[in-house]
Design goal:
Elements: H1 2-17, H2 26-33, H3 41-53, H4 58-74, H5 81-112, H6 117-140, H7 144-147, H8 153-171, E1 174-176, E2 179-181, H9 185-200
Antiparallel strand pairs: 1-2
């Protein structure tokens, strides 16, 4: 049962100090759950992918998934749906409650002092920090577990190509005649999932 207290403590810290949204807190989440050995780095990247594809904030989704799998990974006696659901509940609440209380107070405080020069100056400094945290998360995910898990050269270059094509399709609109069409990320996820299945699953 110690794993549940560890999950609560880890996600309370993530909920309090995870500034910048889900992507910015990924490096903090990885240190909290991969370093102790609750889940592997490969499983963590899989959970991140699933969290991105399912509705809802990535931080909360990943907490729910990690809370479900961590107890069984740490202690074989805690395998099963019931123990997993308990882990999901405690991890999700632990990451949501501190954030909810902080946002509730800070929104009231900021609304009262929205014209304050000090508040504006603080946000001017926080904006580039958030960009840096998101960039750090992107670099963190560019690892062997994502691009070359099997150590095969052709898979590495294929995965790099998939990453580059996906980025281009999301970032730049496609021009068809006089119209510019921007593909929806869900469509790109489905297409690239099919490409991955054809390349690696058959």
């Amino acid at each position: 049962m110690n794993i549940y207290w560890q999950l609560i403590w880890a996600y309370i810290k993530i909920g309090i100090f995870g500034f910048g949204g889900g992507y910015a807190m990924l490096s903090l989440v990885e240190k909290a759950v991969v370093t102790p050995g609750w889940i592997s780095e490969t499983m963590f990247t899989d959970i991140v992918a699933i969290s991105q594809m399912t509705p809802g904030p990535i931080g909360i989704n990943s907490a729910t998934y990690i809370g479900f799998v961590a107890p069984g990974s740490v202690n074989p006696e805690l395998q099963g749906v019931g123990w997993g659901l308990l882990g999901s509940v405690v991890a999700t609440l632990a990451v949501v409650v501190p954030s909810f209380l902080l946002v509730l107070y800070s929104s009231h405080f900021i609304r009262r002092h929205s014209e304050s020069g000090a508040i504006k100056a603080v946000f001017s400094g926080l904006r580039p920090v958030v960009v840096g945290l998101i960039a750090s998360a992107a670099i963190m995910l560019m690892n062997a577990a994502n691009f070359n898990p099997n150590g095969i050269s052709w898979q590495l270059w294929t995965n790099i190509a998939i990453c580059a094509v996906s980025f281009c399709l999301v970032y730049w609109p496609i021009k068809i005649g006089a119209k510019s069409i921007r593909l929806h990320p869900i469509f790109i996820i489905c297409v690239m999932g099919l490409v991955g299945f054809l390349l690696y699953g058959m």
